[in-house]
C-alpha cells in the first residue's frame, strides 16, 4: 500500500465531508431562521442539495461502489438540467422556486458547472477514456474558476451570478476547486481501495470537517448580523481564513493518524515477518547442518555432475568408498573411474536422464585407488534449470559378492547332481572359498579306510612342497589343524602357526612356504561318518571373522555333500552288482572293482580290464582259478590307486 494512495483517499473523503457539512448546516440554519427575516440573512438555492449529491457520488466512487456513484451522479445531472430548463423557460435568472426542494433555483452558470461535475463522477470508473474525461473535467473546472477571478470577461460567474452574498461567492469557488482536485485524484486510486482508510480516520475527518464548517457558519452569521464598515475585513476574510485553516488541520490530523496506524501495522507485519524469517533461517540452518551431517556420516556417495559428467560436488564418503578425497575427484569425469565394460551402458543411461528428466537407477563398477573393484548402485535425477545431475551411489559390493557366491554354489550343486568327477567338484569348492576370502588358500583332505590318516583331495592353490606334507597326515589330538579337527570333530583355529602347539610336526613346512594361519573344519556326513577336513590358509597370522566362519562352514557342507553323494551312488551300484543273479562271486566282485575305476575318465572300464587281468593268469575260460582271482584283485587295486590316491579312502569301500 503506497502512501500517495492513502493521502488521495483522505483528501477525497475530506472534500465529501466538507460538502455534507456545508449542506446540512446551511439547511438547518435556513430552517431555524424566522421566515420573515430569511431574505435579510441569506438567499438559499438548490446548491446544498446538489452538494449532498456530489458528496455521495464521491464517496461511492472512492469505495468502489460504482453503481451507487452513477445513481447519485445521475440525480445531480437531473437536478442541474431541471434548474437550467426552468431558468430558460422563465427567462429570468433570479426568480423561481424549485419543485424538488422548495428552495430557490440555482443560477444557470452554477448549474452548468455542477452538471460537468456529475458527468465526471459518472465516468470515473470507466475504461481509460472515461478516466481521462474525469481528469479533464476537473482541470477544466479549475481553469474556469481561475479565469473568473483574473479576467473581467466571464461576467456570468461574477459574485452576483453565483450567490447573493459576496462572501459566499468565494466559498463556492473554493468548494468547486476542492471538488475539481478530487475529480483529478479519483481515477488514480488503485482497484483495491477498501483498506486505504479505517473507521477511526473517517470519524476524525467527519468530526473535523463538521467543526470547521460550523465555526465558519457561526462567524459568517455573526458578522452578517452586525454589519460594520470598520469590520469589512473580518466580515469578508476571517471566516474564510478559519475555514481554510480548519480544513488543512483536519487533513493533517487524518493523514498523520492513518499513516501512523499504517506504520504501526507495517511494523507489526515486519515484526511477524522478522520472526518468520528468523524461524526460517533457523530451520534452514538446521536443515543445512543436517545435510552436512548426512553427507559427513553417510556411507553413500552424494554428488552432483555437470552435463559433461564431471563431478562438481562430492560427499566425504568418497574417501571410504573409492579411496579418493572429494577435492581429488572434483572436475574429473565419472568415466575415468568406471570399468571399461560399464561405460557404454552408463553413457546411455546418463543421456536418457538428461533428455527425459526422470529418475534412473543403474549399476556401475569403479576401480578404487588401491586397484580393487567396488560395485555401486547409482540413482539420480537431472535438473534442467540448474543444468546439474544430482546422484547418489550406494556400495553394493557385498550384495554382488553374495549374488556371485550364490551363483557359484548353484553351479557346484549342479555338478554334484550331474555326477561330475569328485576331484573337479572339490577343486570348485576351494576356488569358491578363495574367491570370497582375499589372499586365502584352501584344501580338502579325505580320511583313509582305516580312519587313521588324511589323504589329499584338492589343494590347487597351496605350494606343491606343502601339499606333499599334507598327504598321509596322521589324525590325532596334536596333528596340525586338519588332523586335530578330524580327531575332535569340531572347528580348529590356528591364528598363528608359529606359536600354536598343534603344529609341532608340520610347523617347519608351513613356515617355509610362508603359511602362518590355518582354520580347519571337519567334513561329517548326515549319518555322522567322518569324511575328511576342509582348511583355509593365510600368509599372515590372522583370526577368522564371522564372515570367514560362515564361508568355511558353507564350503565344508558343499564338500561333504559331494563326497557323501558319490559314496551313496557307488554303494547303490555296488549293491546292484553283488545282488545280480546268475553270476559267481568272482565276476560280481570284479565288476564292483571295475565300477570304482569307471568313476574317473582315466581308469579303464570293466570290460577292458577283465580280459587283461585274466590273460595274465593264462586263463581263457570263464572260470578263473583262486590264484587268478587274487592276482586280479591286487592288479586292479594297484591300477586304481596309482592314478587317484584318494581312492584308498573309505568312500570307495
Could you list the spans in which at least 5 consecutive residues all have pLDDT below 50? Answer: 34-43, 157-167, 594-653
Helix content: 55-70%
Q: Give the overall form.
A: rod-shaped
Number of helices, counting only DSSP H or I runs of 4 residues or more: 22
In the residues, how many domains can be counted? 4
Q: Structural class, from helix and strand content?
A: alpha+beta
Major sheet characteristics = 6 strands, antiparallel
Radius of gyration: 58 Å
Average of pLDDT: 80
**Order of strands across the main sheet:** 8-7-6-11-10-9
Q: What fraction of residues sit in β-strands?
A: 5-15%
Number of strands: 11
Amino-to-carboxy terminus distance:
105 Å
Walkthrough of the structure:
With 653 residues, this protein is an alpha+beta fold. The protein folds into four domains: 3-255, no CATH class; 298-395, Beta-Lactamase, CATH 3.30.450.20; 401-569, GAF domain (Beta-Lactamase, 2-Layer Sandwich), CATH 3.30.450; 583-652, no CATH class. It contains 22 helices and eleven strands. The strands form two sheets. The protein has a six-stranded antiparallel sheet, sandwiched between helices. Strand 4 and strand 5 form a beta hairpin. It is rod-shaped, with a radius of gyration of 58 Å. Residues 34-43, 157-167 and 594-653 have low confidence and may be disordered.
